[in-house]
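Bumping with the actual sequence this time:
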Amino acid sequence: MHHYRDLITLFNDTFLASHNTELVRGDDEPIYLPASVGHERHRIVFAHGYYASALHEIAHWCLAGAERRQQVDYDYWYCPDGRNSAQQQAFEQVEVKPQAIEWGLCLAAGFRFNVSTDNLNGSAEPDRQGFQEKVRTQALHYVAQGFPVRAGQFMTVLAGFYGQLVPCAADFEVAV
């Protein structure tokens, strides 16, 4: 059984002391909040207690560098659902790497990964299969060259907790 409370415990046990960052359940949209006067810790807030949302937000954090982690939502560009073709293309371009990391985290947790084109109400019809192939290509690159350090560290933690192996190239060959 995959429960978001396990992710909170595993993440916080792994990164709270070393990176002053905690994973917390939110009620609405996910967001990353750096430490501030009102809150001494950085917070990765995921949506509605959804396990998949937590893994996706962790993937973004694993990719963000030190400077980005000092800014709300890493100061990344984001255009919400309802994108046109150009906006959808830009969205997919910035989502390839985090979704490749998310796929690896899902595999390490024994959890089903679903690529997200995240444009249900947009005028552009996303090429889900094409985007999935880009994510897969990036994941295979990470397997060959190494995942970002924090991503690899958390994959090891997840694999140990869920009795899985750390993902290898063959794991990304199966269609999701």
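The tokens above came from a reply further down the thread. Strands lie at 21-26, 31-33, 42-47.
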